[in-house]
Structure formats: C-alpha cells, structure tokens
Amino acid sequence: MARLVFPAFIIGLQLATLSATAQNTTPLTSEELASRTVYRRAVDAAIWGIPIVSLDAMRQAYFRDAKAKYNDIIWWPKGSGWKNQSLTVNTSVRYMYFFCNTRDDEPVVVELPPAAAGASFFGTIEDAWFLPLVDIGSEGKGGKYLVLPPDYAGDVPAGYIPVRPKTYNTMTLLRSIVASDSADDVRAGDALVRQVKVYPLSKADNAPAQRFVDMTDIMYDGLVKYDETFYSSLARMLNEEPVQPRDLEMMGMLLPLGIEKGKEFKPDAATLAQLKRAIVEAQAWLTEKQVTFVTPWWPNSQWVVPAGPIVPQTLFRWEVPNYFDVDSRGLGLAAFFAPTATLGTGSFYFGTYHDSQGRLLKGESTYRLHVSPNVPVREFWAFTVYSRETAALFRNSTRLTIDSLDKGLRKNTDGSVDIYIGPTPPAGQESNWIYTPAGKEWFPWFRTYGPEKAVMDKSWKLPDIERIN
What we know:
This protein is an alpha+beta fold. The chain has 10 helices and 24 strands. Helix 2 (30-64) crosses helix 5 (229-240), helix 2 (30-64) packs across helix 7 and helix 2 (30-64) packs across helix 9. The longest helix is centred in the first third of the chain and has 35 residues, at 30-64. The mean pLDDT is 94.
C-alpha cells in the first residue's frame, strides 16, 4: 500500500484551525459576559429610545436656551436661522414650539384661531414619543383642543376637542404660514399668532396672559447628544412617563444598563464605559442606514419620501399586525421631529441623498436642481439643505433655503427656477445659491405646502440634482 503524504501547508492549516477553534471555545468570564450584554442592550436601547430622548433634548433646550416654562410659546417670527438646531427645520415658515405636562397641570387647553386673510397655521400635537396625535390648523380651521392626562377618566366639557396621549408630556409644533413676505401679510400673521393660547383647563375662566419668547438670533440646541448622557435622558423620561404594554419587554432588557422604572440611574464605571462605546455605534448605524430606509416615490428617480415604507402605511404609528418597526421609527426620528398625523394635506416632503448619477451629495462639489414652472402647490415650495452628520442646518451658514415666496429669486423666462448648491455660487447666480461646506456630506428636503393632486398622484415629477463640476 502506498504511503499517503500530506503537504506541509495542509498540516499547517489543520493546526491553525484547531488553534482557532480552541481559542473560540475558551469560556468568557462572568465579567466579560456582563459587559457584552450591557453593550448589546445599550445599542438597541438607543435605537428604540431615540424618539423620547429627542423630545427631551428639545424640551431641555426650551427650558435652558429659551428660558421657557411649560405652556409658553417659543417662536421664530423671522423664520429659523442656523441657530435653530432642531432636526431638519424649515426656514420658510415661522415655527412655534410649546411643551405641556398634564401631570402638573392636568388637562391643558390649546386654543387656535381660524385662518385669516394672508395668514394661517398648520401643526401637530405629539406625545412624548413623537407619536402624532392630531393635526391642527388644517384647511384654516381653528378650535379649542383639550390635551388630557393618560389616565383621565372625567368628562370633556362641551366645546373642546379631546386629545388623548398616552404620556404626560406633549410637544406641539405649529407653523405660522403667511401668504407672502409683504408687510401686510406679516402683520396679519403676527396678529394671528398673538391669538394662540395655551393654559390649564382649571384656569379657563381667567386664562393667564400668553407668554411668547422671540427666538430670533438665540441659540436653540435641541439636538440629541450621542454620548453617555443619552442614557441619563432615557432613564429620566422613562421615569416621567407611564410604561406602555408594547414596551414592557424592552423595559426588561434595560435592566442590565441600570435603567429601571422608579429607580435612580447611577451606572458604575464599567457600565459607563460600555455606554460610551455603544452610543457611538448606535449613531453610526442611524447615520449609515438613513440612506436606505426611505420610500421610493417616482420610478427612475433619486427623490424619495425621507422615511421607511411603513410610514405611508401606518402614518407614523410604526405598527403593523405582526410587528412594531423599531428600526424604522429610530431612523425616522433621528432625522426629523413632530411628524404629521396625516400625509399630503397641509404639506408633503421629498428628500434625497444622491445626485442624478447615484453619487452621495458632497459639500465640495457644485450641483444644480431645475425646478419646473408651476409646481402644483396651493401655497409655496421650499428647498433646504442639511448636514448629513447632524440632520440639522449647517452652523454659521446664511444661505439655507430657497423658496417660491422669495422676491429675489431669479426665474427663467418660462417661470422655471435653477437652484445651485455648493461652496461658492456660480457667477451671476448668488440669489439662487445655497451654501454647503467642503468636506461635509449633505442632503436636501423639497417641501410642498398645500400640495395639489398632481403631487400626490405622481403626475408631477421633480428632476434629479445634477453635479456640474
């Protein structure tokens, strides 16, 4: 019988495999297992908890930067500039924010006047998880909305529209929309704003004077901090709010992090180290996945609805019969806040991360977007760019948005508009240019206010963004 001879490299490969297998079967210590558990759970906790932490970040900015208290209205009467560091804000409408807490005040009244000539409102009341409860101001309607505590069992007085969140904290985003930037329309808008009132129902017979805080040129830092303080915020908010049945399993998975309802969050040094590592991975995952968790709109187009396909299906409820889409919710609410309760009524948005050739949008390049004449909107359209890193306006930029209400907008002879985006404007195109810093990735939102049928049935189409250098 011939003797079998094994080449040396095969013997070496077998030995290496045996060695690797032996290493892989080395049991982990109790400390290593505990540490890995904290890390895994902390990444998932961030994706799950981003909505309520985002609301808390905005609420803390409301208290800290605006020096506001619950039921105060903070607003941007000249439109938001870059100092409004909220997620994907629009600079063309005049934003109004207010927070309420029915644990302290019990039922709270939100009193909204109907639209007037040249001025109207559109907004949404949200619970603490940024679940949209009701749109307000739609079609020019006013009303008295009564925001109730989650455990409220009393009667609703006549004349009020009940709003029933499952949380004590709520935030309302209200947009003051003026027909133009003419002095008359701005005055009409300002007068209408002054009629908005927020107060406890218990003081309805003698409502206090409404406090407004003008945020023009005031820094409002409402962005989530992706560091270990994320988990302190999460623990704080979970202690403030009732635990909903769908979240019971996640509340159990938070226990290794030291987050437990009714207990102070005091992580030890080892846990804190893992939390610092985990939040970095969670942020990287949220940023990277933004590009793919979108809803295609037009065939053969780079423009999408900037949220996952579950959004049109569930209207930002994120829940279908067989699962709750935690990933889509986390990705969506890491990039925007205060979603609407309906789609395509007051507004509809498009976004993209790519140019016409499918390349990511880069701050150092120059691009052009050709907007056809007669965009099918009842009110106006607006194009705004954001940092992909923060999903907010680029800091220190004064060229943020171009919209159809801008008197200085340069139009082509057929009424179309060419918008230029890049670090410097092409010659003669300064009025139609938006700044992006070199070395930064960016993305735009194209907003339609008062979208008409052609927007929603897709018979109107927005061309892709073209790189021109």
